[in-house]
Structure formats: structure tokens, C-alpha cells
Amino acid sequence: MNQKCWFIFNQDHHLGPFDADEIRSRFHRGELTMESQLWTEGMVGWTAYRDIEAFHKTGEKKAEQPPEPQWKKSLQEANRQLDQIEPERVQKKLASLPRQEEIQVEEELGPELKVVEEFLALEEEEELPPPLPPLPIEEEEAVEIHEDEVPDFLEVVPTQEEMVEDHTGEFEIQALNEEAPEETETDETAPHPVRWWSGMILMVIALVALIWFIWPKKLVAPFNDLSDAQRSVLTHFAKNAPDKNWLFKLMVDKEKGKLFVAANKSDRAKLTVHMRGTPDKLLSLENSEMMATLDLNDYFGSSSELTLNVGTSIAYGEYQVDISGRTSGWKPRLMSLLNTWPVFKDMTFVKFYNPEVIYSGKLMIFNGSQKQLEEKLTEFSKAIENKKVMPLKDQLQSLQSMYAFHQAIKELFIDYLDRITKGKSIVGFERKYNLEIGIPLSALILENNKRSVEAMNVDKEQSKQYDVLMRQGKELGSIAADIVTRIKKMGKLRSNDKVKLHDYFINRFDRLELEMKELISQKQNAIQSYKR
Prior knowledge:
Blueprint: E1 6-10, E2 13-18, H1 20-29, E3 37-39, E4 47-48, H2 70-84, H3 87-96, H4 99-126, H5 150-153, H6 160-165, H7 168-189, H8 193-214, H9 228-240, E5 248-253, E6 258-263, E7 268-282, E8 289-296, E9 300-303, E10 307-310, E11 317-328, H10 330-338, H11 342-345, H12 348-351, E12 356-365, H13 370-419, H14 427-455, H15 460-488, H16 495-530
Antiparallel strand pairs: 1-2, 1-3, 3-4, 5-6, 6-9, 7-8, 7-11, 8-10, 11-12
């Protein structure tokens, strides 16, 4: 094991030979690891340090050395005999030897030294190591050596003495240091496949983008909730409407509460749409107002929610439409940027560009033509007259009758108050009231009560109106009853008493008269509003 028969594999060359102690010393210094490849005579190939048992066994005897030559034994015996001689005698003997004898001794030993030299040469020839096995091929990864990696690589270079014995490693390292820059320069200048493919991909993307912007697109309204005919109308408008000013075509799905919009421009915009029912143009007794917000993109936009501001449902008919908004996307940002540059700000397309969207128009929510809508409105007017105007006319007639009773009772009270001098004389007023006014007034009160009950489950508002008429009739009868009761208790009526009675009851008559006149005016206006 102490012979120099071990070789170390280092990157792409080998170092050695070394003896076993040198191998162990290198391992303890960190120059070798458990994975370092070693080889010696008798091994099939390069073997890792950890797999060589000779370097891991402790306490074992060293392998026996080959038998020593005879001349070595003779030299050892001579040295042993010389050690037994006293130093003084040896020195004296050596000092007394003549110079010539010393030369003769060398000449006498000359033949023996020649034999020793020949023997050593023969032994060295016999102990030469066999040819080294081929260097191991590392298939896992390829190592590229660059200038910044050379210091790490030189850490495992053998010492100066070992390099004298084996120059192969040093020469190969120098060769690598000289060739590495040339390989780097070649890689940088040579055409790289990744760059080539990147260029091709960019060219394809540019071509597709060019085709996308230049190739004519098929313009179709993207509204699946509409029929083919309705989509065709919106598509035709988007294609053919002049694009100078903003124009819009609207459609409303009344059942689903959706709004669909087609524009004459492809700009992106955020819009707010207000729709107000045109008076006398709705097929409804109540007015209707709606609002919606939507995003316009590439001529079309839609809103899934219509907010009712006035009314309980979307009514068929004609609406006044007001649209406001502002364009969005790359175009307004580009125009805003160009407007900051003196070179472009005075150009026509930049100077007159307006990002605001403003539009006013009309919308017909009706499944038919304008003429058909007019016919429906006429029919609706007649139906409204039968359903709404007739009760109003009946209430107006009842109010007018009650007002006539009010005037008759008032005049009768003034007439009797002037004539009578005693309180008991008021019975004449009572008799005439019961015969001429009391009976028809009671009948009118009962009729209003009956109609109020009938309308309670059909139209609560109409029921309330009849209740008001019934209350006014009762108030009028209450005034007549109070006149009889209050005056009948009085004795002789003096002028002051008559004045007080006159003022008190006339005030009550006037308050009720004012209320009746106001109701009569309201009913007349309501009837007039339903007439078209």
C-alpha cells in the first residue's frame, strides 16, 4: 500500500502516482471527497474513494513487503556492526586513512555499486504501473469552463513536487484557459435558435394584428334575447347610420326588463339612458319613467336592469329618450396626449375631438308600427272613459247635487231666521226641510255609501272618494239638525240672538261650501285629463 501506485481522476485528466498515505492525507486536507475517483493496478476501472475498503479499515496490519534483496541485507549488517564500534575508534581510524586509500576503497566498491544500480534499474522496470484504464465519461451534465471558474478548478491541482512527476494536469488546465474565451465568443456570434424562433413569432403576431385591423369584420348585433328581425334592424342601423354625430337605436324587452342599444360609432363609451313617457302617448293610466346604465363597445351595448323612477311597470307607448356619457378606451387617451403636443393640438381631428356623448330622441315601446300605436291609444281612451271617467262623472254629479242641497238649506235658514220672533217658530223650517231636502239628501248619502263598499275590493281610491261624498252629505244634514235643535230651545229672539245664530251657521255653511267647490274642481280636471 505504501508504493506509489494510486492515481486520482481530476475532471478530465488523472494525477499520480501516489502512495496510500498521500491519498489519506489528501482526503483529510479536503482535497479529496468520498466521491473522488481512484485507480490502482488490479482494479477494473475508476472507483469512488468510499468504495475502497483499504482506506477505511483501521487496526489492520500493513500488507507484507516483498523480500528485501541480498545487498540490502549486507548493508544493514554492515551498519549494525559499525554502530557497535566506539565512535572514538572510528574517528581515529578514519582520520589516519590516507587519501589514496580512500580512493582505492571507492574503486574497490565500484563493481559492487554497479551491480546495485543495475539491480535497482531492473526492479524499477518490474514495478512500473500497468497502463491506466480509460477516463470515466460523465453523462449527467456537461461542464463549461470559463475564466471566472478557473480559481475553483485550480484548488485541486497537485503540489509542485507532484506536478514535477506528472505534468499532464497542468498542461490541460492551461489549454482549457486558452480555449474557453474562444468558445464564448463563438456562442455570442453564432445565430441562436431561440432568437430565430422569437423573431419568427413576432413576425406572425404582427401579421395577425395587421389582418385583424385591415380585414373587414362581419358586423352583427350580439343580442341573443332578441329575435332575428330585431337584431337585423339594429345591425342595419349600425352599418348605415351616418357617423358625424352620435345617433342611437334602442329596443326594450318589456317582459325581461332589458335595454338594447345600437350606435353609429364603434367607440367604447359608458352611457346613462333616461326614458320619460310622453303625455297622452302611453297605454297606461299612470306615467312611466325609466333609467339604465350600460357599456357601449363596437357599436352595441345592453343593460340587464331598467330602473323604474316613476310608475309600477314599463308601459307601452312613446318615450322621450336622453342619453349622456363619455367615451373610454385608447382613443380618448390618445387624443388627450396629442392635445398636449404643439405639433398635433391644432390638427382638425385632435382639435374638434369631443369625448362627450349627448343624444336626444324618441323611443316607441310597442310591438307594431306607429299607426297601430295610434289606433291602440284611441281604443285605450275609450276604455279609460268607461273605466275611469264614468266613476268620476258619477262623483261629480253627486257633488253637484249635494252642493244644490247645501245652497237650498242655507237659503231656507236665512229666510226663516229673518221671519221668526220665537224659537218655537223654527218648526216651519224643519217641516219644509224634511219634505223637500231631507229625503233626497238621505238617499244620496246611502247611494255613496253603497258605491264605496262596492269599490273597496276593486279600486280602493274610488272607494275613498265615495266616502268623502258620504261624509259631506252627513255634515250637511248635521247642520240642518243643529239649526232646528238650537233655535227651538230659545224663547223670544232678539236682534242680537239672530245675529249670533246667523254668523255661527253661515260660517259652517261657508266652510262646507268651500270644500265642495274644491272637490268639484278636482273631479272636472280629472275627467278632462282622461280625454284625449
